[in-house]
Design brief:
The chain has two domains: about 40 residues; about 110 residues, Sandwich (Immunoglobulin-like), CATH 2.60.40. Helices cover about 25% and strands about 40% of the residues. The protein contains two helices and six strands. The strands form two sheets. Strands 1-2-5 form a three-stranded antiparallel β-sheet, with no helix packed on it. Strands 4-3-6 form a three-stranded antiparallel β-sheet, with no helix packed on it.
Length: about 160
């Protein structure tokens, strides 16, 4: 025999409420796990002691560094940093990566990006050689202070 309709409706509300709450909790937990325990990037290579000594001795020199911002048809701003890198040392360099650090007007970091300016594909950088580089950025936060970012040598790989 079926219970009266009033009882059935009352019994159905808590079950629906529990199901909804359970699904919401599962969704929150899944989102938290994805954000906290998502795929971890392997740590970026660090400067070796040999590379640090090369940088301290100013064997790699940046020059003619400038920045240009242009708007494209999609109303997106493209910031390009151009310049030259010279190897004044006696070692052939296969890879040089630069860390570009952008700040807001209060000096807080808003973007940190690591980019290669010399690569094996480009032919490396021989002793005494100078090469031009171009670094395009199209996703700099609006809070950026509009000044040239800090450019720091992040990695050197010798031949």
């Amino acid at each position: 025999m079926d219970p009266p309709p009033k009882r059935r409706a009352a019994a159905g509300i808590p079950i629906a409420l529990f199901i909804t709450a359970g699904l919401a909790a599962a969704g929150i937990l899944a989102g938290w796990l994805v954000l906290r325990g998502g795929p971890r990037k392997s740590p970026a290579p660090v400067l070796t002691e040999e590379a640090r000594a090369y940088v301290r001795a100013e064997r790699l020199q940046l020059s003619d560094v400038s920045m240009i911002a242009t708007d494209n048809f999609a109303r997106q701003t493209l910031v390009e940093i151009t310049g030259k890198i010279t190897n004044t040392g006696n070692r052939r360099v296969k890879v040089v990566e630069i860390k570009c650090v952008f700040y807001d007007p209060f000096g807080r970091v808003v973007l940190r990006e690591r980019v290669p300016i010399v690569s094996a594909r480009m032919g490396g950088l021989k002793p005494g050689e100078t090469k031009s580089f171009r670094l395009p950025f199209d996703a700099i936060p609006e809070s950026w202070n509009q000044t040239l970012p800090d450019l720091v040598v992040a990695q050197i790989v010798f031949d």
